Amino acid sequence: MFTRLSALLHARVTALSRPRPNAADQTVRLLGWFNFLGDFRLYGPIMVIYFAQVTGSYTAAASLLAVKTLSSAAFEVPTGLLSDRLGRRGTMIAGAVVMVAAHVGYACASGYGLLLAAVVLEGLATSLWSGNNESLLYDTLVEAGREEEFPRHSGRVNSMFQIALALAAPIGGVLAGAWSLRAVVAVSVVPQVLCVLVALRVREPRLHGPLESTALAHLGSALRGVRRDPVLRRMTLVSALRYSSESAAQLSPVFVAGLWPLWALGLWRTFGHGMAFISFRTSGWVINRLGPTRTLLSSELLDASVNTVALIKPTVFSPLLLGSPAYGMSTTAQQTLLQRAFTPHQRATMGSLTALLGSALYALVALTAGLIADHWGIVAALLTIQAVALIALPLTWRVHTSTPLRPEPAERPGSDADN
Q1: Angle between helices 21-39 and 150-178 (to 10 degrees)
Q2: Is 0.85 surpassed by the pTM of this model?
């Protein structure tokens, strides 16, 4: 009798210690709105023009974009360590506050100096979110015992990026014509302030693993984890190769401008974001039926096929094929495989290391593609980028045929890991 009562009491305490079923759903909804507001930047299509207007030079404007990318890469690992050691929610809030400061700097800048400080701040904010926000989503679902739902929720949350970009681009263009470039940038501060308010409502997941004694020890442990796990090692390379292939987005408008009038480039971008939105929204359904590795393989093969057809035989319909029709599916599948392979207490650090490798490879591929475009034309450059993306296919196949990923440790609040 005493044993039965003890068992019932233990079950009741365990149930009470777990988060309410709707707590995870609330976090998912908040992350979706956070992503929408964060990328609802009305100045997106005119950013380079605005920078050139303030600095008086397109060379200076281009250098600011380069500094933003470099600063984000430089802060990747430190911010990943911060997330793992101090928490997901606090890191998310810090990124939102820094992003507001960056946008205020953009709106108030009268010269190169303040713009330079602002792009460094934006790079810092981006790195604070990189790795952290996906880890927040995954940890929240693991805590609720719903980690198998990650593909569906990740696809829906990340689809909000695309709908924000699709809506902000035309609205920003209209406002720029009616008002001024600086006014559009100033209005774009408002969504970033709303991001802070959304982040403040996010709940910190209580699922944590043991932390190393120092930040360097934590980083060393994460590096050893990537090196020793063949699945994680291959998926890190796959992620970096896929990210480097996104450099095609910077050169694709040159190809499209040779087939469509300049005024139609904005419509082409909106169409691309709309396709990505649909791809993200349906990614969970596809992954639940094919599995993440099959989804990643089939999506990459589809993108490679349609891009090759569009580039080799250019027609007026080629811009509709060019890009990544299955981008949302492949990205969600990739994130699912990575999150399953990351260790719980080093999830954000491992994600930051993956992003850092991707940034370095992105810079190398973009520079190489630019040189090829100068010498052999834009089609040759885009085909080169496509060839780099294809290198990821055999690596993904090895993941598919290797031993299944280790299951997520079934730690729950109140376990020894939390004490």
Answers
A1: 30
A2: no
